[in-house]
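To close the chapter, one final illustration. This time we ask the reader to focus less on the individual chains and more on the assembly as a whole: which components sit near each other, and how the overall shape emerges from the parts.
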Amino acid sequence: MASLWEYANPLKFMRTTERILPAVSVLAALCLVGGLVWGFFFTPDDFRQGSTVKIFYIHVPSAMMAINIWVMMLITSLVWIIRRHHVSALAARAAAPIGAVMTVIALFTGAIWGQPMWGTWWAWDPRLTSFLILFLFYLGYIALWAAIEDDDTAADLTSVLCLVGSIFAVLSRYAVNFWNQGLHQGASLSLDKEENVADVFWYPALVCIAGFILLFVALVILRTNTEIRARRMRALLSREREA
Amino acid sequence: MPDLGKYAFEVLSAYGVSLALIVGIIVASIARARRVKAELENVEQRRRGNG
Amino acid sequence: MIALLARDLRLAFRAGGGFGLGLSFFLIVVVLVPFGVGPETGLLGKIAPGVLWVAALLACLLSLDRMFALDHEDGSLDLLATSPLPLEGVAAVKALAHWLTTGLPLVLAAPVLALLMNLPWQGYGALMLSLMLGTPALSVIGAFGAALTVGIKRGGLLLSLLVLPLYVPTLIFGADVARRGAEGQDFATPLMMLAGISFGVLALLPFASAAVLRVNLR
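The assembled structure is written out below.
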């Protein structure tokens, strides 16, 4: 029975993933376009929120991805620390910009969604503030990778940063909730998620969520293979220089 | 286009910014992938030529 | 480890050691704020706890990059790593030295600067208590950031980018203690959270800092 660890071999990883990439991409496009078109054109407005409820179909998937991508980075960082599989470290590096973009999308859509409710273009709502902090964590992680020349050192340092950052991210979530507990009760975006969302809104949202997940998978495959190639190129170039 | 009512600007700008960012990272990722693939090919060819 | 501490303190107090730097920066930031927001004492008094905390935090940030970098450059960090001292202890001692030369002076200078910011009298105790309890966390967290960037040339800006988000929980609870104290409210909850953070990072982060130092010394 083939083990997942076989894919730690960079060549095997690249070959397998590049074979499934076209299918994943097509599926992602179908779900994304399908879900967004369904949600945008074929769902009713909400009684309270009017047509802004349509932002739900982008905000919820992107917010989920923003967090889940960081979790994926945490897991792959742990795999690097424990088993030192380069593919794992490079996958974390590849995923980070995608996560950062998702966080920005979540921030933009969250702020715009809240504007009619709050009357301002930005309010320090606990959830949005947590995403802002998450964005800063993503930036720092990406910057640290870029600042270090040696690949293994960079992988080690960024994985520890991801670990420590995760603990502080959770801590910040609680701190920010504490910090802003008095305001925006009832107007917080989290309320919209916890309420029972009607089926007519939920089904297109599910398709959009699937689309975002598949988009991430396709992008991370593409980017990880790029990182694997780039790493090989750096190794070859340094060997050339030494020769 | 459905009647977006008074929130038309908000909804359209939300969709616009998000789609632009998604397209942006897709394009950037594909461009970088192609470039690195080509550069690696170059280096590999040089190796095969010299080695 | 005491010897290490004494050495670091002596180095800091020497000319060019950066001792007065944090304090001066603290003063400068606090002096700049009224120029930015206007001299109305009511407003200043209201934002005083937050401003003082942010200024203290930024002042702590200033001297972080010299924590390990100087020793790394002249090779003494390698010596420390191979000495019988555990690297975790070295990281903790470095953070302690940083706190004694930067954090603690800030705590002592805070009342004077609070005067400039028209902090209500009842807030002084809470302010000093929150800074006293919170600045050690800033030093320990800062030590982790400094260890991460020790090998990077001109890594000061990257250090700030990495450390400032990590500072957010400490800032939130510390400033909240100061603010509640200034308004005469009970500040037990944020104080406990602040203490929890300080003790938590002191117990755990030196391990991460040591691991990172080992990577950078390879």
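Chain B has a mean pLDDT of 89. The first helix of chain B runs from residue 8 to 50. With these observations in hand, you are ready for the problems at the end of the chapter.
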